[in-house]
Design brief:
- The protein is an alpha/beta fold and 458 residues long.
- It folds into 3 domains: 165 residues, Rossmann fold, CATH 3.40.50.720; 204 residues, Rossmann fold (3-Layer(aba) Sandwich), CATH 3.40.50.720; 54 residues.
- It is 34% helix and 15% strand.
- It is built from 15 helices and 20 strands.
- β15 and β16 form a beta hairpin.
- α14 packs antiparallel against α15.
- The longest helix is centred in the C-terminal third of the chain and has 24 residues.
- It is globular and about 75 Å long.
- This is Lactate dehydrogenase-like 2-hydroxyacid dehydrogenase.
- GO terms for molecular function: glyoxylate reductase (NADPH) activity; hydroxypyruvate reductase [NAD(P)H] activity; NAD binding.
- InterPro entries: D-isomer_2-hydroxyacid_DH (IPR050223), D-isomer_DH_NAD-bd (IPR006140), NAD(P)-bd_dom_sf (IPR036291).
């Protein structure tokens, strides 16, 4: 029988990426956090060790587990009560009776039957994630993927010409015409933490941003100044860039609901020479439809970030990236393929996500309160709601309401803005325009600092 006072928690992915003193990826920040919460951190397996010290949680760090056989051998018999994972796929027959947390948003890799698989439907244990923790890192990598190919100035070629002294600014630049991003249409599929951050960065480049999301998000999409699209096809219509951030959706009898969402209908609606970016889940794009779009020129470049796994014995490749490899013989120069590295290579993101995952699994075990629950709430647990790194929610607004100094700063800035606006309209004072913009900037800065923008996270 599981002892909740002395749980054994398996960590199957790296909780730090920057090298530590020994040259290996460091885990010291997460270890220190676990110990501050009264836990013990062990490198290596719980198997074959003496009974752990009673009355405290014990974490066992095995970040290099990879294959199904390895995971089943380590965690198929209920040795561990809970698990923290990032990219590693947990097979159905791995067992964690007290729950699991995925570092990141999607939970498709959390396949354990303990909570009913990746959508958390069924089972006896809660499934949780850490949504938004990697939103900024992923969004920045999406823009990096775009900026590698748009504007399409051949930077490497021009650098070589400059280095060789074989180019003249006055005579030769006419050979390299290009177009800026400003005014181009950037279509975003999904309005979660990552999709919204991508949209904000695209807008910073003065692109027209069109977002497809569920209809209940429309008022928030439009309130932020983005264009709402009712369907993925509507979002893609004439778009120069398409970036997908919608997740796989529920798992049904025929697979994940959003698998193949970006297919022929969506791709054919794009502007000629469009850029397609999928830094979400590989299965979201119909690879055969993408091949046809690359062949026709409808898509000039595709950037894909998806898991790729190699069997160490056989050398065979699997995972959602594997189907894209079939495009290489015909379209290698039009592809940028990453092994699900866009956000998973950011050290601060991984550390903060792991610390949040530690807190969530300990809270669930010790108090029965789950946060960022995915799927069903098992018996004996309560739903503590979502933690939201971006956007204002109940907790953040309650914190603001109870801080008189912050409330007064917002009131003062708001009143100053209204006075300046009235002065401009009614008095026509010579300095009214300058004062209005100064007060507008201050108010906007305070609103951003308090996260009083974007959708309400209730």
């Amino acid at each position: 029988m599981t002892d909740k006072t002395t749980p054994k928690i398996l960590i199957v992915d790296l909780v730090g990426l920057a090298p530590g003193p020994d040259g290996r990826p460091g885990h010291s920040d997460v270890k220190a956090h676990i110990e501050a919460r009264g836990g013990a951190f062990h490198e290596g397996s719980a198997r074959g060790r003496p009974a752990p010290e009673a009355g405290r949680p014990h974490f066992y760090y095995l970040p290099m587990l990879s294959t199904e056989a390895e995971l089943l051998a380590e965690a198929g018999d209920g040795l561990y009560d809970a698990v923290i994972a990032a990219a590693t796929f947990l097979p159905k027959d791995t067992r964690f009776d007290l729950g699991g947390v995925r570092i990141g948003s999607g939970t498709g890799n959390m396949g354990s039957a303990s909570w009913g698989g990746g959508d958390g439907r069924g089972g006896i244990a809660p499934l949780m994630n850490t949504p938004g923790i990697n939103a900024h890192a992923t969004a920045q990598m999406v823009m990096k993927a775009l900026l590698r190919v748009r504007p399409d100035l051949p930077v490497d070629e021009m650098n070589a010409l400059v280095a060789a002294g074989r180019i003249d600014t006055g005579r030769d630049l006419v050979r390299f015409p290009t177009c800026k991003l400003e005014g181009r249409v950037f279509a975003v599929i999904g309005y979660g933490n990552i999709g919204r951050e991508v949209a904000k960065l695209a807008r910073a480049f003065r692109m027209t941003v069109r977002i497809h999301a569920r209809s209940r998000h429309r008022k928030w999409v439009e309130s932020e100044g983005f264009h709402y699209a009712a369907t993925p096809r509507d979002a893609a219509d004439g778009a120069d860039v398409l970036s997908v951030h919608i997740g796989l959706g529920p798992l049904g009898a025929n697979g994940y609901a959003n698998a193949g969402l970006v297919g022929e209908e969506v791709l054919s609606a794009l502007a000629m020479g469009a850029v397609v970016i999928n830094y979400d889940r590989g299965e979201l794009i119909d690879v055969r439809a993408l091949s046809a779009a690359l062949s026709s020129g409808r898509v000039a470049h595709a950037a894909i970030d998806a898991d790729l796994f190699q069997d160490p014995a056989q050398g065979t490749l699997s995972g959602p990236m594997a189907p894209y490899l079939s495009l290489l013989p015909s379209h290698a120069e039009k592809l940028s393929l990453l092994p699900h590295a866009a956000a998973d290579t950011d050290h601060p993101t991984r550390v903060s996500g792991a610390i949040q995952a530690v807190d969530q699994i300990l809270d669930a075990i010790q108090t029965g309160v789950t946060r960022n629950l995915k799927g069903d709430l098992p018996a004996g647990y309560s739903d503590g709601g979502a933690t939201s790194p971006t956007g204002a929610g109940e907790g953040r607004l309650e914190e603001l309401r109870s801080d008189a100094a912050r409330v007064e700063a917002l009131r003062t800035a708001g009143r100053a803005f209204l006075l300046a606006l009235n002065s401009l309209v009614e008095d026509g004072a010579a300095t009214a325009g300058e004062q209005l913009l100064l007060d507008s900037n201050l108010l906007a800065t305070l609103l951003r600092a308090e996260s009083l923008e974007g959708p309400y996270k209730g």
